[in-house]
Amino acid sequence: MKILTLQGSARKKGNTATVLGWVEEELSRQGHEVTGIYLHGKNLNGCMGCARCKDVPDDVGCVQKDDIPDILSRMAGSDLVIFASPLYFWGVSAQLKAVIDRTYSLYTRFHEPDHASLLEGRRQALLVTGGGGWDNNAEAAFTAFGRMQKPHKTIHSGTLYIGKCTTPAEMDASVREQAAAFALQITT
Question: What pTM value is reported for the model?
Answer without folding.
Answer: 0.95
